[in-house]
Every structure is written in C-alpha cells, then in structure tokens.
Amino acid sequence: MGGTIRFGKRFLARRRKRQPGRSRSPAKSQPCGQRQFGLDERGKGRLNCNMKNDLPKCIYCCDSKGAFGTKEHFFPESLGGGEWSVLPDGCMCDKCQNYFGSKVEQPVLSDWPFCFVRLIMAIPTKTKKAPKMNTNLGSIAAFRLPGYFQSSFDVRVNPPLEIPASPRDRRLVCRALVKMAIGPLVSSDSVDIFAERFKAARQFTRYGDAKIKWWYLEQVNLKAMMEALKLGADARKETVKLETVYLDGIPAFFHLKYFFLKIVTPIEPHFEMPLPRELPEGTHIYHV
User: Fold this and answer.
1) How far apart are CA 107 and CA 210, in angstroms?
2) In angstroms, rounded to a whole number, what is the distance separating the alpha carbons of residues 185 and 170?
3) CA triple 33-77-28, angle to 5 deg
4) pTM above 0.85, yes or no
5) DSSP string covering 87-101, please?
6) Would you give the DSSP letter of residue 203?
7) What range does the domain containing 106 cover?
8) Angstrom distance (rounded) from CA 100 to CA 87
9) 187: helix, coil or strand?
C-alpha cells in the first residue's frame, strides 16, 4: 500500500463509544483457523506430524541436539493462533523459539500491517493488552470492540489522523511470513521439510541471510475494513485462512487471509515477482 491512511474526525469519534445492547466487559479474542493443514472443522485440532522418525529435529535450523522443551505456534498467538497452530513436539528447538519470539515476531507484530489489523479489530496481545499504534498526532489504542479507540490526543481540535501504511522493516515482515509458511509443511505427506529445496527459506527466515532476496504481496481491503467496523464484535467471527499453494505437487506459495488483509509470499525464492500491471487494484508488492 505505502504512504499513509487518513481518517477524519467522524472515524475518530468512535473512540470509547459503546454500541447499544453491548456489554461493557472486555471482548475476548476469537479462535482462528479452520479446515487447513489437516485440522478439524472448528480448527481445534493440532497439526499432524508426518516426520516422526526424524524428530527431534528443528525445522528451522536443522539442529537435533539442542533443547526442545517449549511449545511453539507457527502462527503467532497474538494474531489468534490457537492449538491448531502449535507445532508437533520436537519440531522446533528452544533456541529458535526464543529467537523468533524476540527478534522477529515481536517487532513485526507491532509494525504494519499486522499492528493495524489488530488495532482495528481490537485483537489483544498475548498478555491481553490492547494493541496500539503511533500516529502523526500521538498514540491510539484499541478499546474493547472493533473500531473503538482510546487516544492520547483530543480528536476535536486536531487535523485528520494519519497512520503510516507501510512497514518500517519489510524484510523482517517477510521473514516472519516465511516462518509461518514453513511450519504447516510438517503435516504434508508429500513434503520432506528438510529437503535441500527449502534450505533458502530456512536461511532467510532464521538468519536473515542478506544474499537471499524475497518478495511478498499485500492487499488491505479498506472497504471490507469499514464493513467490519459496522459489525463490531461480530466481525471477529471471521477466521484466519492459511493456505499452501502447490505447483506440480511442490509447495510454492503461502497465502494468508487475516480479516481484511491478504498476503502472498513464495516458499522458494526463485519464483519471479508479478508485474505491477498484473496485480489486482490495491495490491502492493514488497521486494526485500
């Protein structure tokens, strides 16, 4: 998308406003994910593992001698990742889990586009805190229900609010996406997650290898966002959709649909970026 998104006073006036008939108690986040990667229909199952003979072995660094004592979500808890996104035991070492949590996911979840979606939809953090963003006027935080906010400034006397609509670190965002893409492959009957073809993805997401170039497509549907604001808490019933797109039996692309956000990134770096004229309206391409 790039640039900024501008909101006028009418939008900001929604802060701290309560919908008729709605409870004042804080809204709870909804479980996400369904009918993907061998999950049950309600998304409550965990990933099946088709490489038990190889475990324990980390799918990101390929180490088999380290500690494997922590539970890891390939789709972050702070975005709604539940039990359905927990990797099987022995698939991710503690060292990689700690690295991704502090060096990749934490800064990415506070950056565009994920922080923006969490702010609009009032998706709480892992520690149940309200998501917030910095703007040209000051900070703005979600307030219980989608589309309701608390701000550090007076909306009645200030110019329109502008939210940066591009990531501060697009390469780090892309690394987080590739990490999400690798995780579900452990459940595929036809994929050897430790195959040489996935080495570049591992090197890119885990170590940020500067020699490896990647790209991703991003589409933020502002019309769908405004529709979600009208629905309030009911808008959170829509679940996240994760897909692996196969070409000739080989996993090629990772597709994420998160409320009004859509993202596509390749699982291998050799796939060429589409030309701008080939993209749907409102789609932005990042090359990192």
Assistant:
1) 19
2) 24
3) 80
4) no
5) PPTTSS-HHHHHHII
6) I
7) 4-287
8) 14
9) helix
